[in-house]
Design goal:
single chain; alpha/beta; Rossmann fold; 11 helices; 8 strands; globular
Length: 299
């Protein structure tokens, strides 16, 4: 792994495969490090003939942290919700899309097939809107248009996310994270507590920075609806969403596809808000098929 200088930030990144092949840029979600794009996932895309780039978003993992940048207060969130007042997030999703474009530029990659999961899907959408020449195709996974009126997370998931675990107590924090992923994970492809523990311990040992989660969340809320922006997208688009997603309900994926001209919607039965190992081959095959088709259509 290595770092790139992007927009005045240090961005940690990693690559897989032959740099001479068509590139795929992977953008991960809220408070989640690039390692959530598993080695199996990345290598499966390599097996389909692609060059794969993954990176840590700003404020997470091994990329630059925004130390001291204060997220909005609870009062500001309430005023934003009630009166649509400004939220004054430390940075925006558009800034994060700029980072994604900067990664490609720093690697001397003119354009790539762009794949984003959850918040990463939102960033990928905005990258496509703001930098269409950088995007060969767009794949938005378990994400949303941000349109008002879409269903919220399932009640038990929302209640769990509202809790504030003691970040100074490692055991309590690990238990909280395990419960988080048990709640939002795929019911059709459940992982054991030990499997989640192993993944979480590996992630925490690499980097533990909950402050970044809070600021990234503020960026999501401040971005609001992307509906009008999505309607300007003219790149081949695939929307993938789990039927049983309890965090970002299926209606959010359906709505995203509805607002992007020509978008293909693929609903995965049994999938929640994660990428379980048994679905890696199916998901990467869908992404590769979509990218292959966009290449053929462009010729």
């Amino acid at each position: 792994m290595a770092q790139l200088q992007v927009n005045g930030l240090q961005i940690e990144y990693d690559t897989f495969g032959d740099a001479g092949n068509d590139p795929v840029l992977l953008i991960m979600g809220l408070g989640t490090q690039m390692t959530a794009w598993s080695l199996d996932f990345c290598n499966a895309l390599v097996g389909h003939g692609y060059y794969v780039i993954r990176f840590d978003n700003r404020d997470i993992g091994l990329s630059t942290k925004f130390e001291g940048a204060e997220p909005p207060s609870r009062l500001r969130y309430l005023l934003h919700h009630l009166f649509n007042s400004s939220l004054n997030a430390p940075y925006s999703l558009a800034d994060m899309a700029d980072d994604s474009a900067g990664v490609l530029q720093a690697l001397n990659i003119e354009s790539a097939h762009v794949v984003g999961a959850s918040m990463g899907g939102m960033i990928a959408q905005l990258l496509t809107v703001g930098y269409p020449a950088r995007v060969r195709s767009l794949t938005s996974i378990m994400s949303s248009s941000g349109a008002p009126g879409l269903p919220p997370p399932r009640a038990d998931v929302a209640k769990h996310y509202a809790r504030r675990p003691n970040v100074d107590d490692p055991d309590a924090m690990i238990a909280h994270l395990i419960r988080t992923f048990q709640l939002i994970g795929s019911p059709g492809y459940r992982r054991s507590e030990d499997e989640w523990r192993e993944l979480i311990l590996a992630s925490v040992s690499r980097s533990f920075y909950p402050q970044g989660f809070v600021r990234q969340f503020a960026a999501i809320i401040a971005d609001g609806s992307r509906v009008e922006r999505l309607q300007t997208i003219d790149r081949p688009t695939l929307v993938i969403h789990g039927r049983e997603d309890p965090l970002v309900p299926i209606e959010c994926g359906i709505d995203t596809a509805k607002h992007i001209k020509g978008a293909q919607l693929e609903v995965i039965e049994g999938m929640g808000h994660d990428i379980p190992p048994p679905l890696v081959d199916r998901l990467t095959a869908l992404i590769a098929e979509h990218a292959d088709h966009s290449i053929s259509a462009a010729r």
